[in-house]
Amino acid sequence: MSDRYCVVSFPETDYPPLTLPQHQNLSECLTIQNSPVLFGCRTGICGTCLVAIEGNIPPASEEEKEILEAIAPGSDRVRLACQIDLTNDIKITLL
Ligand code: FES
Q1: Average predicted confidence (pLDDT) for the chain
Q2: Beta strands per DSSP E along the chain
Q3: Residue 42 CB contacts under 8 Å (≥ 6 apart), including other chains
Q4: What are 41-48's contacts with CB under 8 Å, separation 24+?
Q5: How far apart are the CA of 49 and the centre of ligand 1, in A?
Q6: What is the pLDDT of residues 37-62, one digit of tens each?
Q7: What average pLDDT score do residues 2-16 get?
Q8: What is the distance between the alpha carbons of residues 54 and 77, in angstroms, rounded to a whole number?
Q9: How confident is the model at residue 21, as a pLDDT?
Q10: How many other β-carbons are positioned within 10 Å of the β-carbon of residue 78?
Q11: Of 82, 85, 92, 94, which is best to mutate to test ligand 1, by the most ligand atoms within 8 angstroms of its C-beta?
């Protein structure tokens, strides 16, 4: 287990920032109580968790890129929240 933590914040919402262990899977710890992000499949297929991300995290996998190009073509900050590797502090905004 990593002992490093990352702050996940939700600008322009009333949700307070969350401090989560590095590499934590967001779909396992963001809930409707603690975040504005909604999840569906949690495996990178449905696109429900589409968000804009600000922060220095690893780029999307080829599979994630394919979905992003289909549902949000041309935006470089959009990601699937369930597929993010949490390596740094990030800001999440809903689209
Ligand atoms: S929850 Fe379905 S793509 Fe993320």
Answers
A1: 96
A2: 5-9, 18-21, 50-54, 78-80, 90-94
A3: 27, 49, 82
A4: 41/82, 42/82, 43/82, 44/80, 44/82, 44/83, 47/71, 47/80
A5: 5
A6: 999 999 999 999 999 999 999 999 99
A7: 93
A8: 7
A9: 97
A10: 17
A11: 82
CB 53 within 8 A of CB 91: yes
Query: Is the pTM of the predicted complex or chain greater than 0.70?
Result: yes
C-alpha 82/C-alpha 43 separation (Å) is 7
The two tokens of residue 78 are 């959009």
- Domains of the chain by range and CATH? 5-94 (3.10.20.30)
Q: Fill in the DSSP letter of residue 82.
A: G
Residue ID of nearest Cα to ligand 1 atom 3 = 44
Do 81 and 60 form a contact (C-beta atoms < 8 A)? no
Q: What is the pLDDT of residue 1?
A: 52
